[in-house]
Amino acid sequence: MMFKALVVEKNEDGKTNATVQELSMDRLPEGDVTVAVEYSTLNYKDGLCIGPGGGLVRNYPHVPGIDFAGTVEASDDPRYKAGDKVVLTGWRVGEAYWGGYAQKARVKADWLVPLPDGLTTRQAMAVGTAGFTAMLAVMALEDHGIKDGPVLVTGAAGGVGSVATAILANLGYEVAGVTGRPETAGYLRSLGATRVVAREEINETVKRPLEAEIWGGCVDAVGGDMLARVLGQMKYGASVAAVGLAGGAALSATVIPFLLRGVNLLGIDSVMQPYDNRLRAWARIAQDLPMDKLEAMIKPATLSDLPALGRDILKGQIQGRVVVDVNG
Ligand code: NDP
């Protein structure tokens, strides 16, 4: 039996190329559970793995796709049986292990969670790693207390930012979305943002370590200068959930916001989340993310669309969430 997959190969000149290929089942890696994948998604890391140089790929040939949802086809683990619907995010799947850009995947049972009640496999992947991470960020902010004042979401029109905006707005927070694309203002307002802030307004050279206190919390998908600037604008005791580095990894900030304003910088990692945390976050997603808003974020795609879309996500040009129908 054959299945379709997007395969990244490394040529003799060190360059990589990604093509849709037909593979036989015996090419699948070792694992306890074989899944008939239905949907995967495009995340920033996937853009790196499909792109030239292979980004985070650990071995070739490689099937990228850091998340997927589908139906168990065969299982050696008592927790799963054929016919169960499952979701996978994290655990370096799609980087060190073959991932979701295929009609079949074989993985460790520990990496899976059952499809959350109330979600279809397509909806679960519209959320995907980006949305799962957005929920983890919101939960971290809640654990530390969200202060009065708007909650800032940076990289708001991207995957993490879109889902964070919709969840926070649905929870009743006033949400300000930072975007470098003014044309996405209507989209961000439709997700529940009450304020759209131009990237340049925040992302200037940091002049002073402390500025006026504005934000009651922040989900930051951008890092770099944006994060440095936002730290000095947080309300006393407020928290920034640092999720990503779409705007750069270097952080040029002072310790002053931490010392004089008690600001918390919370690092969010979706990859190694223990099983119970993953279940808790997925249950919160099913409860707190309005499905009509999730639908508005979806850009449908097939495996053959991914090389071009991978380039777009690295340029910060994707709005919302790319949902990949691997059978499309
Ligand atoms: P997207 O590309 O969908 O969104 C990123 C957004 O950031 C863009 O849409 C753009 O938003 C903004 N942006 C891009 N480049 C710049 C720049 N140079 N300066 C300022 N803003 C910029 O990616 P995701 O939302 O999927 O991921 C965002 C980040 O989070 C990535 O770094 C990713 O690796 C990371 N991540 C981390 C996870 C974790 O476990 N910690 C899990 C998932 C993602 P706009 O146009 O609105 O300005």
Task: Explain the overall architecture.
With 328 residues, the protein is α/β, with parallel strands linked by helices. The protein folds into 2 domains: 147 residues, Alpha-Beta Complex (Quinone Oxidoreductase, Chain A, domain 1), CATH 3.90.180.10; 139 residues, Rossmann fold, CATH 3.40.50. Helices cover 30% and strands 25% of the residues. β14, α10 and β15 form a beta-alpha-beta unit.
Shape: globular
Q: Radius of gyration, rounded?
A: 20 Å
Q: How many domains make up the 3D coordinates?
A: 2
In whole angstroms, how far apart are the ends?
18 Å
CATH architecture of the largest domain: Alpha-Beta Complex
Helix content: 25-40%
Share of residues in strands: 25-35%
Mean pLDDT: 96
Q: Could you spell the SSE succession in H and E letters? A: EEEHEEEEHEHEHEHEHEHEHHEHE
Poorly predicted regions: none
Q: DSSP helix count?
A: 10
CATH class of the largest domain: Alpha Beta
Largest sheet: number of strands, sense, barrel closure: 7 strands, mixed
Helix/strand/pairing class, anyone? alpha/beta
CATH superfamily of the largest domain: Medium-chain alcohol dehydrogenases, catalytic domain
- CATH fold node name of the largest domain: Quinone Oxidoreductase, Chain A, domain 1
Query: How many runs of DSSP E, i.e. beta strands?
Result: 15
Bound molecules: NADPH dihydro-nicotinamide-adenine-dinucleotide phosphate
List keywords for this structure.
Rossmann fold; Quinone Oxidoreductase, Chain A, domain 1; single chain; 328 residues; binds NADPH dihydro-nicotinamide-adenine-dinucleotide phosphate; globular; 6-stranded parallel beta sheet; 15 strands; 30% helix; alpha/beta; 25% strand
